[in-house]
Amino acid sequence: MRIPTLLLFTGLMCGISTFANADDSTNTASSKLNVLYIMADDHAAHAISAYGGRLAEVAPTPNLDRLAAEGMRFTNAFVTNSICTPSRAVIMTGKYSHINGVYKFTGLDQSQPTLPKYLQSHGYQTGFVGKYHLHTNPVGFDHWSILPGQGRYHNTEFIEMGDEHPSGVVRQGKRTGYPGSHSTDIITQKALDWFRETRDPNRPFFYMLHYKAPHDLWQHAHRYDDYLADVEIPEPANLQDHGSGRSGPLDQSHQNIAGETIHTQFTPEIKAMAPGPEKRRFVYQEYMKRYLRCVKGIDDNMGKVLAYLDESGLAKNTVVIYTADQGFFLGEHGLFDKRYIYEEALRVPLIVRWPGTTKAGSVCEELSLNLDYPETILEIAGFPIPDDMQGRSLVPLLSGNVPNDWRDSFYYRYYYSHFDTPSHYGLRTKNRKLVYFDTRDEWELYDLQADPKEMHSLATDPTSASALMQLTTQLKSLQADVGDDPNDIGDSPRTGNEMLDRFERERAKRQAASQNN
After folding, report:
1. Residue of 90, 215, 91 whose CA lies nearest to 150
2. How many CB atoms lie within 10 A of CB 389?
3. Is residue 319 within 8 Å of residue 346, measured between CB atoms?
4. What digits encode the pLDDT tens for the residues 440-467?
5. CA 410, CA 424: separation in Å to the nearest integer?
6. pTM score
7. DSSP H helical segments within 76-226, as ranges?
8. Which regions of the chain are under pLDDT 50?
């Protein structure tokens, strides 16, 4: 594996620029595909009705379902690190966290090659609106308008291109407020304004439209106040699982759906309830209604976006990708949030509409990763894929073909950050999952065919000793293949800003010390 250096990047970009000048100058928007990349924050796949499940009937998502009906729905799309900022860095770079330098909530080193830089150098008009959450000022975009950090749901503020702070730190930039706005609505409006007023019709575009929703604190637009008010949301079968003693690493975390971490924002009546199964059910109902109201806002706004693409004629030449930065627990195992390698947090929705190439209503069951997105988009745009990216282009799958050597497993790693969720790494195959919680020195092993809800770890089952040994060997091999050092605990982030790096290293050490105590 070749880890990119500044020298390599400079030479590579010079070569790309030469190629772009020689080749792309004769191309117009009509001869290149546009790419509209839409990403929500914490949107679980099982909160989209096209994916079925217990929520499909009570909280349908007709516009996202339409996209799935007109494109391909991936049922086994996953992330390599189920946490917001690292996942976004993976998508920007096509590299694992230990390579791109973003292990936790630290800034992306913008001196390294990124997807928008590549596309911009090839003549694409690049734009971004919404939740960015990479903490260092964006690079590679012709236009951007981003939320500062998590951003506000109501009376949303943005940092506009040109108002960034010279320190390179996003949160220090000048903020422009939009009184009376809701983030989902204003992000969509800003995107449509860019398309109507700023987009160059003579150039192909790559546009990233990123929603804040449905991230906590789940503050939906007020027009949805009564949505689902009289509906009882179906519970997952394992809602009461957390605290059972089944899994020490699971019980350690504060992601308990009835714990102090989540329900302090809810009603005084819920907070005053005594701990127990009944309280968990009350919190679950309140949590899910707030979450699904945020999802409803996304789906309604997706309808506006799809309608504009139809009306403008762009739909026929634009690849639309919808996904999330990671999955999310919706009460499964008694949890909310993400971070764990368990299925609900690991899996993401991935829907791709590619007119003329992807069969409408098709479904892909192959293992795919957020690591694959940059390579996929570069190939869709017709440009070479850098050798140092670590994923694989999904274009063959989108074309209805499965390469003989397509992956049958992948590597995952989460570094400690919040909620006392223990750090861990592992692998997932098509039918099994092996997890090692490194700070606890504990293993978990799951048979995903016999136990899809991951309720019974087989790591200490004598009859699974052979499978445990085999998967452990495979895990070590995958770890070596991606260049990860198990002793690298993520306490040396690389933001490209020396002062910020020093601050983040000290914070990481404090977090690690807290975890070990």
Report:
1. 215
2. 21
3. no
4. 999 999 999 999 999 999 999 999 999 9
5. 14
6. 0.91
7. 84-93, 97-100, 115-121, 183-193
8. 1-28
Q: In sequence order, which ranges of 220-332 are alpha helices (DSSP H)?
A: 248-252, 260-263, 268-272, 277-312
3-class SS of residue 99: helix
Long-range contacts of 263-272 (CB under 8 A, 24+ apart): 263/287, 265/216, 265/217
Give the separation between CA 251 and CA 257, rounded to whole angstroms.
12
Q: What is the DSSP string of 192-245?
A: HHIIIII--TTS-EEEEEE--TT-TT----GGGTTTTTT-PPPPPTTTT-TTSS
Q: How far apart are CA 328 and CA 291, in angstroms?
A: 11
> Which distant-in-sequence residues (6+ apart) come within 8 Å of 11 by Cβ?
none
Q: Which of 188, 192, 239 is nearest to 213 (CA)?
A: 188
Tally: H helices and E strands in the chain: 15, 18
Ranges of each domain in the chain:
33-355
* Architecture in CATH for domain 33-355: 3-Layer(aba) Sandwich (3.40)
Residues forming beta bridges with residue 353, ordered by sequence position: 320
One-letter amino acid at 108 equals L
Count, residues in the chain: 517
